[in-house]
Amino acid sequence: MTSLTQTRLSRRELLKIGAGASLALTTVGLTATLSGCSSSRPSSDFDVLRDSDLPVLAALLPALVGNHPALTNQPQAITATLRQLDISLAHTSAAIQKDVHDLLGLLSLPLTRGPLTGIWGSWEQASPERLEAFLQRWRDSRLEMLRQGYKALSQLLLMAWYALPLSWETTGYPGPPQI
């Protein structure tokens, strides 16, 4: 009978792995940008979000919001949320827009999407369970970079969702006071 031994990483080895992963992700992102894999032009009818960003965000929104009646009963809810997110991003700095583009570019590019998220096919074909597993893995990751990516995605999408009046109805929020 053989016994399995656990491999324990020292702090130094873990830091080396983290630095190597960061370097690899930066290299892949830079290569994708320079090779034109990710268009820098906004999608039609959007000011900031690109065509490659929309499927990522549309797939992740229901996983983050959960089973909200407005999201499931109103077909335009996802599009309205993405438009609200675009409006919010249009009022941010160029540096923040670049960071969001970099994150969404990594998630859009098939070369990086699979290893980073566990979603090996297209975002549109990803099951709710896979999307939730990806978000949970990033939320609970030991790597600060992945935790920050989760925070950015969840805060951006939830901020855009709860800015819409259609999300208020089932929560009992009457909306902002009339002035």
UniProtKB/TrEMBL annotation:
InterPro entries, sorted: TAT_signal
Name of the protein described by the UniProt record: Twin-arginine translocation pathway signal protein
Species the sequence originates in: Halopseudomonas phragmitis
